[in-house]
Amino acid sequence: MNSITEQLLSVVSDWDGSYKGAYNIREDGGCAGRQSSENIKIEPKSDNPGIVIKISSKAQNETVYIPACVTKAGVNDLVYNDFIVEDGADVIIVAGCGVHSEGEEEARHNGIHRFFIGKNAKVIYKEKHIGTGNGKGAKRIDPVTDVEMDENSYMEMDTVQIGGVTSTSRLTTARLGKDAKLVIRERLMTEGDEKAKSDFKVDMNGDGSSVDLVSRSVARGSSYQEFVSTINGNCKCTGHSECDAILSENGRVNAVPGLFAGNIDASLIHEAAIGKIAGEQITKLCTLGLTEEEAERKIIDGFLK
Question: Rounded to an integer, what distance in angstroms lies between the CA atom of residue 280 and that of residue 301?
Answer without folding.
Answer: 17
